[in-house]
Amino acid sequence: MDRVGECRVRNGWVEAGKPRILKPRRMQGLETEGFSAEANRFFDWMTEHGVQMQALIQYGFQFRRSEVQEEYLHEDIREVSENVVREAESSGDVMRAVIEGVDDAWEISLLRFMIEMIQQSHEINIFDFKRHGLL
Q1: How many domains, in total, are found in the chain?
Q2: Residue 25 per-residue DSSP state
Q3: Which of 17, 43, 77, 109 has the most Cβ atoms closer than 10 angstroms to its Cβ?
Q4: CA proximity to 85, closest of 9, 3, 33, 21
Q5: Full residue range of the structural domain in which residue 33 is found
Q6: CB-side exposure of 132: number of CA atoms within 13 Å?
Q7: 2 in a domain, yes or no?
């Protein structure tokens, strides 16, 4: 359970690596590195509940995350959120994202963000694969 008046800010990186080798159907699946068992169960839950992950499974994406630096702040969540977003915007790093969520499910929020980004870029990735003769 989150504590009133306390926010945890995590900083690290994630990567959804493009496949290096297309796998035979019977060997396809997702690989994760650096995530907890609970986060890995999230993928199983999504599959069981019919969430469309064909773009992820078909190409055998591998998900990785770095070690995470944590900072506890004793400020209002709105103030922390505004400061973190402002810092991200001023960094000039276009690959930086801010995800706000419940502490207990932070890894699941991170995975959901990654999956949504991949699903949104699915069409352009297919176009690129075809353009390079990979499909």
Answers
A1: 1
A2: G
A3: 43
A4: 9
A5: 7-131
A6: 6
A7: no
33 SS3 class: strand
DSSP string for residues in 63-99: EEE---EEEEE-S-HHHHHHHHHHHHHHH--TT----
End-to-end CA gap in the chain:
47
Query: Tell me, what amino acid is at 46?
Result: M
Structural domain contains residue 1: no
Q: Kindly state whether residue 86 falls inside one of the protein's structural domains.
A: yes
| Best CA proximity match to 98, nearest among 7, 23, 4, 20 | 7
As to burial, measured by CB atoms within 10 angstroms (0-12 exposed, 13-18 middle, 19+ buried), residue 108 is buried
Sign of CA dihedral 45, 50, 96, 80: negative
Show pLDDT as tens, one digit a residue, over the chain (135 residues). 456 778 899 999 888 766 554 444 443 455 666 777 887 777 677 667 666 555 454 555 667 888 899 999 998 889 999 999 999 999 999 888 999 988 888 888 888 888 888 778 777 777 877 887 766
Q: How many whole angstroms separate alpha carbon 38 and alpha carbon 35?
A: 8
